[in-house]
Amino acid sequence: MTLESSPVRTDWTRDEIAALFDLPFTELVFRAAEVHRANHPANQVQRSTLLSIKTGGCPEDCGYCSQSAHAETGLKATKLMDPRAVLQAAAQAKDHGSTRFCMGAAWRNPKDRDMPAIVEMVKGVRAMGMETCMTLGMLTDEQAKTLADAGLDYYNHNIDTSPERYGEVITTRSFEERLETLEHVREAGINVCCGGIVGMGETRGDRVGFIHALATLPVHPGSVPVNALVPVKGTVLGDMLADTPLAKIDDIEFVRTVAVARITMPRSMVRLSAGRESMSDATQALCFLAGANSIFTGDKLLTAGNAGDDKDAALFARLGITPMAAECKVELEAAE
């Protein structure tokens, strides 16, 4: 596949992004579909699997997260999984058609004593021929280099929401600290996976700010996960949305967000992540039309439910979508 020869913009203004959001819905989706087909194989979607390798007990106070020690969800904290168990799960994911295996640990940041086990996981999954992704919280420069030396393909570190809304969602880690980790990851030569969550009671202006923050990074993220909040009782946002259900994003606005992400970050993989299990097939189809080309497969994400392999296979068959093979993946950062 040949990418567009035109350079990728990283100088989007908020006014330009707001104007995209304000387009008539069909016009916006049409433009996003054109951008998608100019930069990616049509009707192909990447399948990834996400595994929680260390669950619960995180000291961060992220208002959406059931794994936060500040939440009262009854989730039991666990220790870091044995690498052998992780590799067994990766082998099963590969058997079910996943080409990328993502591993997440509920830490503020990994301890240096944890790094040898993490390195073993990365090397083992890569040896299976799968792409590797880790999300471990904040990283030091040295930890990022260690992961790069192990061959890590992607590091996920979401900005979550707009810079202005951020402090209302999280207080134990600043927006600037998230950007600092992204810089460590880029400097180490690891591809960035970075997105966030919508449907947290934010305004459209916040969604504009969220996309703007991603689309003006020095290099666009190779992967952009767009999550729809899964409200969990016992979390700040889960309890808040239970009382104010109208704060939840509607399907049309979610598709608009996907479309604007595709237009402003044309070569990124835009992933439908959390919240997909509650979306109709029609909503997911619109998201694929608007440029989403990656999903998480399986029955579970880190702690939230997911659509499941059988349901995804049936949807792909109905829509004529082909699972993307590893060699068909667009390498954003190399392309730029």
What's the arrangement of secondary structure elements?
Elements: H1 14-21, H2 25-39, E1 44-54, H3 83-95, E2 100-105, H4 115-127, E3 131-135, H5 141-150, E4 154-156, H6 163-169, H7 175-187, E5 191-193, E6 196-198, H8 204-215, E7 223-228, H9 236-243, H10 251-264, E8 269-272, H11 281-289, E9 294-296, H12 309-319, E10 322-323, H13 332-335
Parallel strand pairs: 1-2, 1-9, 1-10, 2-3, 3-4, 4-5, 6-7, 7-8, 8-9
Helix pairs in contact: 1-8, 2-10, 3-4, 4-5, 5-7, 8-10, 10-11
Descriptive notes:
By secondary structure, the protein is α/β, with parallel strands linked by helices. The chain has one domain (14-319): Aldolase class I (TIM Barrel, Alpha-Beta Barrel), CATH 3.20.20. The chain has helices at 14-21, 25-39, 83-95, 115-127, 141-150, 163-169, 175-187, 204-215, 236-243, 251-264, 281-289, 309-319, 332-335, and strands at residues 44-54, 100-105, 131-135, 154-156, 191-193, 196-198, 223-228, 269-272, 294-296, 322-323. Strands 1, 2, 3, 4, 5, 6, 7, 8, 9 and 10 form a 10-stranded parallel sheet that branches. Strand 6, helix 8 and strand 7 (223-228) form a beta-alpha-beta unit. The chain is globular, with a radius of gyration of 18 Å.
